Amino acid sequence: MSINPTPQLSEQGAAVLLLARIHQSFGHLPAAEFHVSSVYLGRLEITVHDDLDAFELWRTALGLDAPEEKHHGGTSWLAVSGRVEDAPVTLCGFAAREAVTAAARAAVTA
Fold first, then answer.
1. What is the pLDDT of residues 40-69, one digit of tens each?
2. pTM beyond 0.70
């Protein structure tokens, strides 16, 4: 049985560099939560809570496609994944179910 080596920081480089460029280019956007994944190496995860207008600003700025509507139990969110520069990116926006459904419909018709 072979054991995978522990991931190295260098494998997260594209996401870390993208985050630095986002900070410089999009400092005017609403604050969000950022996570550089060590599980999905090199992926930058951006999360917005309770503000789907902010989610849409981020989605547009990053050039990502229309989001998918997702629900699990009492939690609802919009999610979209894509590539920005050299890094895979996942953007999620959490909000009340009704707001998520309305925002998903609006994104599809836009």
1. 888 999 999 999 999 999 999 999 999 999
2. yes
Contacts of 10-17 with CB under 8 Å at 24 or more apart are 11/41, 11/42, 12/36, 12/37, 12/38, 12/41, 12/42, 13/42, 14/42, 14/85, 14/86, 14/87, 15/42, 15/43, 15/44, 15/87, 15/88, 17/85, 17/86, 17/87
What digits encode the pLDDT tens for the residues 64-92? Answer: 999 999 999 888 999 999 999 989 999 99
- In sequence order, the 6+-apart residues with CB closer than 8 A to the CB of 18 are 44, 84, 85, 86, 87, 89
